[in-house]
Amino acid sequence: MSTPGPGTAEPAPVIAPRRRTRVLVLMVLLLLAAVAGFGAWWWLVLRHVESTDNAYVQAPLVQIGARVDGTVREVAVDDTDTVRAGQLMVRLDDTDARLAVQRASAALAQAVREARVLQAQDGSFDAQVKARRADVERMRAELARAEDLAARRAALQATGAISDEDIRQAQATRDAARSALAAAQSAKAAAEQQALANLALSDGTRIDSHPGVQRAAAALREALMALRRTEIRAPLAGQVARRTVQVGQRVAAGAPLMAVIPLDRVWVEANFKEVQLRHMRVGQPVTLTADAYGSKVEYRGRIAGLGAGTGAAFALLPAQNATGNWIKVVQRLPVRIELDRPLPEGHPLRVGLSMHATVRLDAEPAASSAPPPAAVDAWDDGAEAQREADALVLRIVETNLRPGPRR
Q: What residues contact residue 356 under an 8 Å CB cut-off, 6+ apart?
């Protein structure tokens, strides 16, 4: 028997057929177990959930703008500052607005005094009308006497008892009486027209409800509102962002100055594929995690609503699907998710943070536990400004209604 030389390779060991069969069977069993495990996991878990990492934190973006033209005199807040509702943010130069209030106050006082004059003239015009009527009656009586005298002298003219000079004098007296009666009637008509005109301006109204006084009061309220709007205050509590205004800048009404974001009203907008929406309903529970805090911090919420259209439908340049080179792309629909309050302590959410959302499709839809919008801290200066304007108008009217002391 020859032995292999130094350059001859050893023959490969031969695996027994029985051992090879056992390895193949074991591999098949492991594969079947893995498939069965995945199938059970899909049946028990995966088919009841839909998830996406195309989700981001959203919040209302409240634009703060000037409501009147003016020059910025003070900026009281900066980016990242937290403000409360009603807090001063920007103050404009109010010199012109204060002068306008002074002019409107003087115009209101003048209107009240003119209304007083109109009411005081009613009695004077009534007396003038009565005097003109008395003059007419007196002129009529004188005309009757002059006509009677002229008639009697005309009857005596044939007998030669009176001269032609007496006849002409009687006729002249009669003509003068007629002219005086016509003048008295014209004066009476003019007095009546003047009295009616004055009565039309003052009848049926008190001084404080006179149209001229009301117009002046409205102008004063408008001037006061413009003065109040030189102070720009936060309409609701939140955090300042996107500040662009600077001291000394000239701003126009409606120009955006900054924004306030109420971080206590955040929600999550998750963009699910259209194939994931088949069993998705409003009110289904959602579990969320933020990339900023990792998977250990979970947020709870519920579906508040499904978007009216996909992102492509509302894009600035929507897709033109009726073209020859059309390629089907799976669309995504935005789903609004309300977060349960309170949020995990020490882990606030900021606008734009990435989230991972998982929806439980097998859970019964329930109502959202988020607070209603009425609970949000908000501020409106309309009612307060109206009360301030009403008090000033009442004070000016009462001051000018009372006659001042004579000097």
A: 51, 52, 53, 55, 288, 289, 290, 291, 295
pLDDT tens for 67-123 read 999 999 999 999 999 999 989 999 999 999 999 999 999 999 888 887 777 666 555
Residues near 198 by beta carbon (within 8 Å), at least 6 away in sequence: 118, 121, 122, 125
Per the CB < 8 A criterion, the answer to whether 260 and 234 are in contact is yes
CA angle 83, 86, 89 (to 5 degrees): 60
Task: Mark 17-49 as b/e (b = at least 16 C-beta within 10 Å).
Answer: eeeeeeeeeeeeeeeeeeeeeeeeeeeeeeeee
Angle at 108 between CA 104 and CA 113, to 5 degrees: 150
- 8 A C-beta contact, residue 173 and residue 146: yes
pLDDT digits (tens, 9 = 90+) for 287-338: 999 999 998 999 999 999 999 988 888 888 887 778 777 788 889 999 999 9
CB 248 within 8 A of CB 394: no
Q: What are the DSSP E strand ranges found in 35-86?
A: 49-58, 62-65, 70-75, 82-83
- Here the tokens at position 194 are 């003047």
Starting at the edge strand found earlier in the chain, the sheet holding 88-92 runs 231-233, 88-92, 70-75, 250-251
Which of helix, strand or coil describes residue 38?
helix
Partners of 233 in the beta sheet? 88
Q: In this predicted model, what pLDDT tens digit does every residue of 110-149 receive, in sequence order?
A: 888 877 776 665 555 556 666 666 666 777 777 677 666 6
Kindly tell me the burial class for residue 50, based on how many C-beta atoms sit within 10 Å of its own C-beta (0-12, 13-18, 19 or more): buried
Within 8 A by CB and 6+ apart from 362, the residues are 48
